[in-house]
Protein 1
Amino acid sequence: PSGAVPAGPAAPVLDGYAHVYSGKVRDLYAPLDDAGAPRDDLLLLVASDRISAFDFVLDTPVPDKGEVLTRMSLWWFEQLADLVPNHVVSTDVPDAVRGRAVLVRRLEMLPVECVARAYLTGGGLREYRADGTVSGLTLPEGLTDGSRFPEPLFTPSTKAPEGQHDEPMSYAEVEAAVGPSLAARARDLTTRILARGNEIAQARGIIVADTKVEFGVEADELVLADEVLTPDSSRFWPADQWEPGHPQPSFDKEFVREWLLSRASGWDKASGEAPPSLPDDVLERTRAKYVEAYERLTGETFRPRGADR
Ligand SMILES: CCOC(=O)Cn1cc(-c2ncnc(N)c2C#N)cn1
C-alpha cells in the first residue's frame, strides 16, 4: 500500500501460538491445540511497548508501556464488571510477554468502533465546525476545542482497513449493521463506560476526553473486548490543565509530540517522512507518565513483572 506508514517492528514469534494480526501497537495470536492447529475459542492479546504519534508507529519502544496499559485495562475491566461482562480468561501467558498479554475468549466482534466523546476535540471538532453536528447529532452553539458535553455522545465509526482512518457511522448505519437492539445496547454501554471512566479518573486528576471500545457478542449479549479506557484507546488529559479554547495537552504523549515538533528532532511533520528515533530522556519521561496514570487510577504501585525483553 502507498503511504509512509512504516511496517513497524514485526510481532515476536511465540512458541505454541500462531500470529493472527498486528495493529499499530498490539499483536493478536491464537493458541495452538495439541495437534498444532490454531484454537478457535481463545486469543492472546499482546500489548507491545510501541508508541504511535502523528499516525506513525515510532521506532523507539517506551519501556514498560505494554505492561502498564495491560494492567490498567485489566483494572478497568474489574471496575466495569457490574456494568458489562468482558472477554478476559487469564493472565497466564508465555514468559516472553509476561505482564503485557491477556488470554481472552474469541468472540464474534461487532463491525463497529464504539466511540464515546465527553469533550469536543479532534475529528468531532472538525465536523462540528463544518456543520454544527458530531456524528449527525446536533449540538449547542458556541462550543470550542475542549468543551465538555452535558452527557457523553455515542459517535461510532467503521473499522477501516489497516493504515486508513475510520469513517464516522450514523446511528442508523449501526442499526443496519448489528440490528436496533444491539445498537441501542452498544450506545448505552459505550456512553456509560466513558461516564464511569470519568467519574473515577477525574477524582484522580485525569480527564478521559473520549474512548473507543469494542464489543463481541455471546448468546445475544454484548461482551466488552479489546482494551478499555487506556491512553491508547482514549484521550487522557491532565485535569488541572483543562482550558477550553485550544488543543489540550495529552497526559501521556505530550513529551513525544513536543520533542518531535521541536527543532531538536530535525523532523518536518509536513514532509510525510517517518519521524526520527526519540531520545532516551523523552522515552523515560513518557514511561513515567504511563506509570503515573496507572498509579493515580489504581492506587497501586507499578512493579514490572515482565522478564527483561
Ligand atoms: C492487534 C489488536 O487488534 C485488536 O485487538 C482488535 N481485535 C480484537 C479482536 C477479537 N476478536 C475476537 N475475540 C476477541 N475477544 C477479540 C478481542 N479483543 C480481533 N481484532
Note: The CA atoms of residues 76 and 228 lie 7 Å apart.
Protein 2
Amino acid sequence: MVKITKVKSGSIFETKESYSRIVAVDNWIFVSNTAGRNYRTREMSDDPVEQARQCFHNIEGALKSVGSCIEDVVQSRIFIPNVADARAVMDYVGERFHGIDPQRTVTCSPLGAPEFKVEIEVTAYRGASKAEVEHIEISL
Ligand SMILES: N/C(=C/C=C/C(=O)O)C(=O)O
C-alpha cells in the first residue's frame, strides 16, 4: 500500500490556498515552491540572498519532518523575478547544493508579489544521500 504524507509548515497560504509544503509519496518527496519568509514571525528580508537562506531553512525543516534532508534533493527549481539578483542568488544556491548537484531549472519570472525575491521548489528521494551515485561526464 502506498504511503502518502502531507505536511503543512506554517505559511498562512498553505491553509488559505489548500496546499502542502510537502507531499511525500513513499520515498518521493515533493516540496512546494518555498518563499524566503520566516513563517512563524512573518518576517522576510528585502535582500534576495537572505531570502534564499531562509528558503533553504524552510525546505530543510520540512524535509526533516519526513525523515529526509537537503542531501536527498534530486531536482530543484529556482525562481528569481529580477534578473539582476540572479548572480548573487545562484552563487549562494551553488554553495548550498555543492556536492549534492541536483537537476536544476532557474527561471526569472514574476512571483506572487513584488516582495518575493526568490522562491525554491525541490523534489527529493528519501535515502538518495546514502545511495551509490555513478558520475558520468560527457562533452556535447
Ligand atoms: N510560495 C510561498 C509563499 C508564501 C508566502 C507567505 O507565507 O507569505 C510559500 O512559501 O508557500
Note: The longest strand covers residues 28-35.
